[in-house]
Amino acid sequence: MIGLPKAILVRHYAPFSLLLILGASCTNRDLPFETTPAKPAFAVQDATNVSGTVSAWGGNFVGDLGNGTNTNSNTPVEVSGLSGVTAIAGGEEHSLALKGDGTVWAWGDNGTGELGANTFGSSFSNTPLQVLGPGGVGDLAGVTAIAGGDLWSLALKSDGTVWAWGWNVYGQLGNGTNTTSNTPVQVSGLSGVTAIAAGNHGLALKSDGTVWAWGDNSFGELGNGTNTTSNTPVQVLGLSGVTAIAAGVRHSLALKSDGTIWAWGANSSGQLGNGTNTNSNTPLQVSGLSGVTAIAGANANNTYALKSDGTVWAWGDNFFGELGNGTFTPSNTPAQVVGTGAVGYLSGVTVIASGSFLGLALKSDGTVWAWGLNESGQLGNGTNTNSNTPVQVLGTGGVGYLSGVTAIAGGGFFSLALEGATSAPPLAIVPPPAVTVATDVGRCDAQVNLGTATTAGGTPPITLAATPAGPYSVGKTTVTWTATDATGSTASATQTVAVFDPARFSITAPAAITLEAGPGGTVSVDPSRLSATLTANCPGGITLTSVRSDGLPLDAPYPLGTTGITFTATDASGYSLSVSTTVTVVDTTPPVITVSGTFVVNATSPSGAVVFYVASARDVAAGVVPVTCSPPSGSTFPIGTTALTCSAADPSGNQVLATFHVTVLSAQAQISNLETSVTNLALSTGTTTSLSAKLNDALAAANAGDVATACASLQDFINETRAQAGKKISISDANTLSATAQSIRAALGC
Hints:
The chain is mainly beta. The protein has 5 domains: 7-423, Methylamine Dehydrogenase, Chain H (7 Propeller); 428-500, Immunoglobulins (Immunoglobulin-like); 506-586, Immunoglobulin-like; 592-665, Immunoglobulin-like; 667-748. A hairpin with a 3-residue loop joins β18 (242-247) and β19. α3 runs antiparallel to α4. 46% of the residues are buried.
């Protein structure tokens, strides 16, 4: 760094004094670590914005403002030759801009190679230079985020890797060395990174919500429980679920998904915000804050937070009013930034940033507000007077007010704003049309010219990739086209590639099937009997479908009758062949008739007896079917044996006839049966003989046609049975014998 006239402010705390050194050629490398005033700016990035220009104001000792001069300005000036900017960041005395094409531009001090231009020493640039690629070969590209550190710079690429250049005395380049580099080197062992921050140390947030740190660790700013400097990344202890990070020169910050803030490192002025002034080499929760959406780390001694309600909170040193709370009193717990002139509170803020002893806020209306140190005009309000309440930044040249701002950043003694940025259309991709080709000769695949996808929107340069690559086998392949722009945004679309065998195939239908119906009139068919046979050189690219005439699945049961099945084979070109077969289900089994009832009955009168029965018929296919019988149930059947004939038919026309016989016993047969019953009772010989004699008389008379004598003999039997009831015959048996004899008398017509 050259010895241009500048003012370097150094804070001493015991005893308190303020030293102003004019015309000094020293840098912060000559000063005690924690009292270094420079800071890495908080870079606000929006990778979807394009066409942005950059304004700067404040100190311009080594071209910090990038307007081609080295003259300080207390109102914004436009950085020369920049457009298409999407993000900005400030270091101690250099600035960075990220363009929509993924390239990085830098201006200001280059004493330690922080511009990445492959030069060192007294060189600086007061206009933007493009950051070169590793080793000075080509240009750094594919960058999605940037951060400015204390004499060094940091970039995040779309592939999740991190690159650094500039001063490396503390290992802040993270490449395992302590060698300063004027071109980008890759930070070792980091991938999957989504955000970066820089002080005298580097911070990286990974996609898994963990935080990694490297570089200076004099005050525990690496957060790994030690105070040992590391030139490769180490994991910050006890942190997960982190969504944003920020760095001061000597302290670090993390914002969790629950809206709480965690801080570690130097704390001499209460910049950790936990109510103490004790350094910590592990994360501590900032007191009393929740609902936070953004964080910023100021120089060595300040921290800022933006809440979801648009209010801003600050803590730490306040010598120049950098807390913005209307006082000059430091605070080791968060204090709310007040409104202009200490009226109300600052509100409507969407973005915060910070510089050395300086706070910055971007409101939703695109205006910028600043407070704190203004020795070099870094508040941008046309004065060089410090302010402990927010003042509005003026427009370019002091005309009106700065507006249309989309991002802000602070450097050592200067401030930056991104203006006029518009949202780029989202990246979109249209694939080439579908392709249909024949297989290569003698093969079952083909090399295919896919054509080229077209894209719209996004940030150039845009790369295209198609997967899978050829050759493509017979059949249809879905090719996915992916477009990736300079910001890492992607868009995808698909293309169909159809490859067919020009040698035509053939298809043979399975034989027709005839089956006997099962229960319910349906039957299932073995699927192996319903497979068409395909003959082709390259069968893999041919689809075979089958459709039943009734629309049901092939494996569903088949109903009575004939069901057609059509088999269709189609190749990738759309050529198809169809064949068909049938499944016929028949019902040749007649119903089965069943008759239930008593088929041997006693005559109840001389004409016979009324007989009741139940006839039914069941068919295997149709289930229950109607049945008719003759004589019908409830008819009077004559004495003797009568044939009962029943018939039934199923819906298929299968008929069945069944014959049953009904016998009506005569009075004589009933008398013989009654005599057998008497004998079986084992009564006394005299009683049995007497009763049997009466029954024999009745039987003889009935056979002779002498009904009157038969009736009289049966009455004598009844009288004797009743007379002997409870004596020689039990009452129960007597009642049964009497009742039976009385029924026989009725059959005789007595």
